[in-house]
Amino acid sequence: MAAEATEIRIAEQYGLAFLPLMIMRDQRIIERRGAQLGVAKLDVKWAKIGAVNAINDALLAGELDFAAGGVPSLVLLWAKTRNTAGAVRGVAALGDIPNELIVSRREVKSIRDLGPSDKIAVTAVKISNQAIALQMAAAQEFGPDNYEKLDPLTVGMAHPDAAVALLSGSGGITGHFSAPPFLERELRAKGLHSILSTYDVLGGPATLNVIWTRAAFREGHPKAYQAFVSALEEAMEVLNRDKRAAAAVYKRLTNSSESVEEIAGILEDPRFVFTVTPHRVMRTAEFMHRTARVKERPASWKDLFFPEAHRFSGN
Question: pTM (2 decimals)?
Fold first, then answer.
């Protein structure tokens, strides 16, 4: 049996959707949980990476142990690595949080009004949550065979950069498929408005981001894996118990332009549910299979996640 891990390397991204991870980092919950399990001096290293492709490459290369990102990336990695030594599966969800397509052109009321002059920022072209949601919306609006109709309008940008570009009006984009708190910042600005939500596309509240890792890490370092899972669940409890305190953590760690009160207000939005239970992930998986993005279709959401998550009432 391999020696238990003494180091865990975790990648997170930008925005309020990753607040549970920030709380884990801020309160050193993984280290404490590891010590309780007999893993002394567990060193947890955090990396903030805005590009999901870079995250996935690092994970597959063994340079990361846990990655956080959108459901499409998990589906892609699961399909690419299943039944191999480098198999990747999900650990847990990070919560149900809507993203919205914010646009600057007043005459754009729906995706039907988008045209060649538009440039829409998504975190990664063709594979991010936002890119897949836009494809799903196009399939619903223009017909299943036209799901890629709006792809030529998309450009890859991290949320903070896209928000600056859209708000300044000088960044070369006319839209941003945005995540909290950037979307709230954009909606407060004159002349910007929302035309689409991921909840519209997915038929209701749905998991935005998930955590995944390699089977080799879970099997080789079971205590470190257990420490991570229990730490994530504790962080969710901490966040949901006192959202103003959680908002203060976000403000301190990110130096967000929003006040603690504004961040807390966003967290109190009833559309936001911080939970480890996956919701509507199969909608995305089925779409990716139908459009040949992945060859294999998971039989259920449980195929995408390690057994420890199967006790959740997911879908």
Answer: 0.93
What residues contact 152, with CB distance under 8 A and at least 6 apart? none
Q: Which domains does the chain carry?
A: 7-97+206-311 (3.40.190.10), 100-202 (3.40.190.10)
Site of tokens 């279709």: 297
- Token pair, residue 53, equals 């492709």
Total Cβ atoms within 10 A of residue 260: 17
pLDDT digits (tens, 9 = 90+) for 123-165: 989 989 999 999 999 999 999 999 999 999 999 998 999 999 9
